[in-house]
Specification:
Pfam families: PDZ_2, PDZ_6, Trypsin_2. The chain has about 475 residues and is of the alpha+beta class. It has helices at about 15-30, 55-60, 120-125, 260-270, 290-295, 315, 335-345, 410-415, 435-440, and strands spanning about 45, 45-50, 65-75, 85, 95-110, 115-120, 125-130, 140-145, 150-155, 180-185, 190-200, 215, 230, 235-245, 255-260, 280, 280-285, 305-310, 325-330, 330, 350-360, 360-370, 370, 375-380, 390-395, 400-405, 420-425, 430, 445-455, 455-460.
């Protein structure tokens, strides 16, 4: 088992130095529009010229370029036309297997272990992943795991003299904080752009299933996907993921996955090889003026709980329908979507403190999250012959259900079909995906997968 990833300690800067940095940054933005000043020396009349270069000298070596080759099924996506991902031909309208090549970016988060974080859509369906470091070295990477619902993936390379980036606490971000985006747009090579945090907690955009985006106006384009969004200390505050681009280009509205959310997900991938998503067991709505008026609430923000599932984590903790969740672990919750995204990035069996308004009173509940058994697992990470299959645990049948099989995929060619129930490998009983993974891990030769199809028990042989 790999050691859990721990972010490096943040650099300590005095309040005065932060104020000076912000002032210098503003001056730098103003000076960039004056070509006549472009070649001025570092000092003019004894005054140091403002520059982000010292910070970037430490941050940019941790950002890499990613190139991939593979095959994918090109089909209609449930993504609004205005939202353009930074990679591949994800929005095309056909349903067939096609070879592809693509470019993206990634961030080294642990130089000792060679861990690189990027977006799932950058390396999805890739057969070969090549990493290009800032110093020009090219190294093939292996995929350790990914989470399509939040669009995070973790890669690993073996190399010496790597540079990792420090993580910031993204919960401390404020609208107006300066940002710098680092990535490789259009395959041009490493590029740096600057801007500010335009908004926080962006959700309900139908880009991913779990959304709690940082919005920034730092220019990001095709190829920046998976790259770094950093603050003026050079600390990672987000992973650039998508843009709002009706014309396919940058219009100053980009979205990044917060570093805290990324860290929670990556830690699970390192420990388990997949995300063990926590689930609260509620449904609800974001509080607005209409709900606030109907329920006589004094707040227009938070997550209104419409239903609590029986025997769920929320039910066992004492949360009830009609409650309004306004904070988690002491940090404000602005909407139900934000609540869902934050809960969804925290691992199963973890405890969270939820601040709730009930009948005008404020209460705090400690909730132990349960595991989301309906989450689809990337079957390819279990065995290459299961690539193209979507697996879920069925707790009632104590088995693994194949929800879907992509036509033409290795799983389809092996003979698996949607609806098949996996109950065993060779002579061993299988009750869930974890046991299936354990049975198939590091095995060679022919394996007999025992399935139930309809009312018939049969075996499918894979190698």
């Amino acid at each position: 088992m790999k050691k859990p990833f721990k972010p490096s300690a943040s650099a300590k800067l005095s309040k005065l130095s932060l104020v000076i940095s912000a002032a210098l940054f503003s001056s730098a933005l103003a000076l960039t529009s004056a070509p006549a000043l472009a070649n001025l020396p570092p000092q003019v009349d004894g005054h140091v010229m403002p520059s982000l270069a010292p910070m970037l000298e430490h941050a940019t070596p941790a950002v890499v370029s990613i190139s991939v080759v593979g095959t994918h099924e090109v089909s209609q996506q449930n993504v609004p036309e205005a939202f353009k991902f930074f990679f591949g031909n994800r929005g095309q309208n056909q349903a067939q297997q096609r070879p592809f090549r693509g470019l993206g970016s990634g961030v080294i988060i642990d130089s000792d272990e060679g861990y690189i974080v990027t977006n799932n859509h950058v390396i999805e369906n890739a057969d070969k992943i090549m990493i290009t470091l800032k110093d020009g070295r090219q190294i093939e990477a292996k995929k350790l795991g990914s989470d399509a619902k939040s669009d995070i993936a973790l890669l690993q390379i073996e190399a010496k003299n790597l540079h990792s980036i420090k993580l910031a606490d993204s919960d401390n971000l404020r609208v107006g904080d300066f940002t710098v985006a680092i990535g490789s747009p259009f395959g041009l090579g490493q590029t740096v752009t600057s801007g500010i945090v335009s908004a926080l907690g962006r959700s309900n955009l139908n880009i991913e299933q779990y959304e709690d985006f940082i919005q920034t106006d730092a220019a990001i384009n095709s190829g920046n996907s998976g790259g770094a969004l950093v603050n003026l200390r050079g600390e990672l505050i987000g992973i650039n993921t998508a843009i709002l681009g009706p014309g396919g280009g940058n219009v100053g509205i980009g979205f990044a996955i917060p570093s805290n959310m990324m860290h929670n997900l990556v830690s699970q991938i390192i420990e388990f090889g997949e995300v063990h998503r926590g689930i609260l067991g509620v449904s609800g709505h974001s509080v607005n003026s209409e709900i606030a008026k109907a329920m006589e609430l004094e707040t227009n923000q938070g997550g209104f709980i419409a239903q609590v599932m029986p025997d769920s984590a929320a039910d066992e903790a004492g949360i009830k329908a009609g409650d309004v969740i306004v904070a988690m672990n002491g940090k404000p919750i602005k909407s139900f979507f934000e609540l869902r995204a934050k809960i969804g990035s925290i691992g199963a069996n973890k405890k969270v403190n939820l601040t709730v308004i009930r009948d005008g009173d404020t209460k705090t509940f400690t909730v132990k999250l349960k595991q989301d058994q309906s989450a689809e697992i990337a079957a390819a990470s279990i065995h290459t012959m299961l690539k193209g299959a979507q697996l879920t645990n069925d707790s009632k049948k104590q088995a693994v259900v194949i929800e879907n099989v992509a036509e033409g995929s290795p799983a389809h060619m092996a003979g698996f079909k949607a609806g098949d129930i996996i109950i065993g490998v060779n002579r061993s009983r299988i009750k869930d995906i974890a046991q299936l993974r354990d049975q198939l891990k590091d095995t060679s030769g022919v394996l007999a997968i025992n399935i139930i199809r309809g009312n018939i028990s049969q075996y499918i042989m894979i190698r």
